[in-house]
Write a structure and sequence with these properties.
Layout lengths: L5 H7 L10 H10 L8 E8 L11 E5 L10 E4 L2 H10 L3 E3 L1 H8 L7 E4 L4 H5 L2 H4 L17 H10 L1 E5 L5 E8 L4 H17 L10 E8 L5 E3 L1 H4 L7
Parallel strand pairs: 3-4, 3-5
Antiparallel strand pairs: 1-7, 1-8, 2-6, 8-9
Helix pairs in contact: 2-8, 3-7
Length: about 240
């Protein structure tokens, strides 16, 4: 049986695991219990009424967090010529074409987001088995295959969060840091939830947004009342 530390036990005290908390109370509760020695990430998880095994129930998208994610994001860009220069000027840490492909194939993946111009996608496609499982494969649906390299790099560094539903029908993302004030976290959570709601697939049946929970890296999870998150009463 795994040992549960005193800090973990203390962080769980006072949390009703059956209660649906309003978003304000939930965020306050999470912040109060984020007591690790580092700035913990606040994460949101949303259970969806979809079966990702069916193509018409796949959920994928991107959300621009209004207050940023608090993360330092390293960006790689597949581009040549003027577009490569544009990527470097925009702040991309890694820029290249065949040389970048070889770097990735050798296992040197020192970036968090990958962007590509459309003309280099045949090259990037060879890396699908490497980048795909890591969630790094550029995709036009989330704005990472584009000629607007400057905009894509700026979005990635400014708090753009990609999401994709997992096999269990859950989407999750880090939407800020525990050091953020409560209102900024609430705004980020609502922005992310709205982006997921807008990505509702045509094949979804019944209630789409089923459950929402938030937690910090080392803290307990808190269930959130969906009606307190959305500006509209129903996201189904």
């Amino acid at each position: 049986m795994a040992h549960v530390g005193k800090r973990v036990i203390a962080s769980r005290e006072g949390i009703d695991r059956k209660k649906l908390y309003g978003i304000d109370e939930a965020v306050k509760t999470i912040k109060e219990r984020a007591t690790a020695k580092f700035d913990e990430t606040v994460e949101v998880s949303i259970n969806l009424g979809v079966d990702p095994r069916h193509a018409d129930q796949m959920v994928r998208g991107v959300c621009q967090l209004p207050n940023g994610s608090g993360r330092s994001v390293r960006v790689a860009v597949f581009a040549r010529g003027p577009k490569a220069d544009e990527a470097k000027k925009a702040g991309a840490e890694v820029v290249g074409a065949e040389d970048l492909m070889e770097q990735i194939q050798s296992g040197n993946i020192n970036f968090d987001r990958c962007i590509a111009t459309p003309d280099l996608m045949p090259l990037v496609g060879r890396l699908g088995k490497i980048l795909g499982p890591r969630g790094l494969m550029p995709n036009p649906k989330v704005g990472t295959v584009t000629m607007d390299v400057t905009g894509a790099v700026s979005a990635a560094k400014g708090g753009a969060v990609e999401f994709r539903v997992e096999k269990a029908g859950i989407v999750h993302a880090g939407i800020g840091k525990a050091s953020f004030d409560e209102q900024k976290l609430i705004e980020n959570i609502r922005a992310f939830a709205d982006a997921v709601a807008r990505a509702k697939p045509s094949g979804a049946k019944g209630t789409y947004i089923q459950r929402i929970a938030i937690s910090s890296t080392m803290g307990p999870g808190v269930k959130v009342d969906p009606s307190s998150v959305f500006a509209v009463a129903s996201a189904a």
